[in-house]
Input
Amino acid sequence: MVPEAEFRSYYGQPVIKSPVWHEPHMPAYLYLGGLSGAAAVMGVMAGLSGRDRLALTSRVTAALGATAGAAFLVAELGRPERFLNMLRVFKPTSPMSMGSWILAVHSGLTAVAAAPVLLATRPASRIAASLPAAVTASLPAAVTASLPAAVTASLPAAVTAVLPAAGDAASLASGVTGPLMATYTAVLLADTAVPAWHEAHRELPFLFAGSALAAAGAAGMLATPRAQAGPARAVAVLGAALETAAGAVLESRLGLVGEPYHQGRAGRLLRAARVLTAGGGLLAAVAGRGRVLTALSGLALTAGSLVTRFGILEAGRASAADPKYTVVPQRRRLEGEGRAPARAPARMWP
Amino acid sequence: MAERMGFFTDTSVCIGCKACEVACKEWNDIPDDGFVFRATSYDNTGSLGASTWRHVAFIEERSRVPADQDRDGDDGSGGIEGWLMSSDVCKHCTHAACLDVCPTGALFRTEFGTVVVQADVCNGCGYCVPACPYGVIDRRERDGRAFKCTMCYDRQLGGLEPACAKACPTDSIQFGPLDELRARAAERVERLHGEGRPEARLYGDSPDDGVGGAAAFFLLLAEPEVYGLPPDPVVTTRDLPAMWRWAAGAALSLVGAVAVSFLSGGVLPGEGATGRTGARGRRGGWRR
Output
């Protein structure tokens, strides 16, 4: 337990402003960006090792994650119609500028990578097989059979010939943008005056990388036949382990500034996330045995990754709202450097 | 570039009249920021924000001696030792976090060395809001964009001083070239010390502080946090290179974790045959 810190403030008001980002937009974007980034890397590895079915799932997951994430990001803006202003400048001092470029390139690449596997180059039966059973069941068989054929017929032969090669190249490139996509959001949060985020700039990237791996592994497990989902299960297990370890280091290292991570609503969310992630990870290790285990594990990991992001946002809000977290570490820093008197004069003004 | 301009706010002569708040609202045509009775002091404005670019803090400091033992305690002051008043404003930092992190280039540095938001460019991403170590800039939710003090950029372009400084009846808010203001402030704090007020101190005047010095700096009569100011603010982007290095490490770990998962064949308990599609798949890569 951290001893109660003595400090002064202006009527207990916060010194800094709380993040204005809304729920669920911001945490959903963090989750989807991570999901897409890690899935893109899985897509590359699956392709290189000849696992077509897992490559298909991963590429589609990466494309859908990036697209949906971008939609949440635009909806979060105060002026959504001006979202293209993000690409007016290329600004290395702004993680959001770098992130916008990463997202723009990554979403483009993942879309191109997913296009051929969804459209022209595969027989309809394989497309249908790739969809979750619930989706397939809800569509008339005639539709699932005829849609891809119709699309293929409407494309010039030249395009259908080029698409697979372009898709493979784009998938390879998304193996570079993916890891950036999954981790830049940690820098985005850390590069603020919010003490709980700023001081966590070492652990947050690893926490987010683990969360992204767990999310993408879970998606791979849920949407790939069990016999071919082995690597996805391994990714999920490693991701859950990384997320759990990074979270533990974060909470033990930060001391006073880390309080918001285990108190109040943020604490409850993050405890729930830890149980879901660790439980899902353990289940994933044995999930090859059965359908129910796989579903339980995949859903727990997905929920864990999502709840982690909500918890991190909430911890940042709590950290900004209490002046203690801003004033006390700064005061200690000043006193440690001998730049300020340790004690104020007894009578402060006449 | 013109000379760097600044504000020197000498709180030892501030009378808490809030003329600066009103003048700022009037000149800049800022909408109301709510009519809230805060019941803490004579301050019902609260803090700086999207629609509050000058904020007069008002502190009723209680005596450290319990009221019933205080010799002055029977004068009806209820143990109130004194009043502190200070007109807060955007600091227009040398190293401005809001400016650094703005992804659209809406925030820019003017020829006067000040930091200004271009309302026709800002897309309301909100990143500048938690980046500011002083909690100055904010997003106006009804409008969607971020706003803050411009040090009356338009008036400066016309050769006029900012509205708040113009309206201040005691010259607590002084506007001028930053070098001149710093020299004047050093003299003033020296004089106050000579008059037996050792608590007088300058805040934000040093180019060696965490934001490289503020263009709007203050003479305070108590610790900064009493006024709601951070005691040792640091521009958040100072650690950005380190942050990217840690993120790069995490990104590589992610790649490594995926590679290990695939190269190990995804063999976990319960794993039957691997998911490979056969010789054709291995040989031909992913192109079927």
About this structure: Residues 120-125, 341-350 of chain A have pLDDT under 50 and may be disordered. Residues 157-190 of chain A form the longest helix (34 residues).
